[in-house]
Fold DUF8048 domain-containing protein.
Amino acid sequence: MSADPIDGQVLLLTAAKASVPPTRLPELVDDAQTHLANRLERYRHEFERLYADEFIEAFLVEWGHWADLGAELGMSEREIAAVRRAHEEQVLRAGRRMDREGEFETAFEIREAVCIGVKSECESDPE
């Protein structure tokens, strides 16, 4: 199982701004994560990786990526916007810690963020 890509505080912040019920946002993020985790290798090969840590890999994707992905998942426009915003806020939060927030904000003018949770080494199956 992969890690949650979006921190709880980011979900709370996003839910406060989103036009979807706050109880619905974690479910939407989980649905997207399930879909994204199955395509992690594709993202690694096709998109620019902004950063990675032991729990998350964040990528820049073409504008409209979330609209397409959300449609695949059967999300409404509001739900797509909320999930996209959660991923962007997660990247911006990391950007603040790395002193790269301005760089990430500029990138979001032409591209979108996708965060994919990855299994940490602590969670790996023992052999």
Q: What stands out?
A: Residues 8-117 form one domain. The longest helix spans residues 77-98. Confidence is low (pLDDT under 50) at residues 121-127.
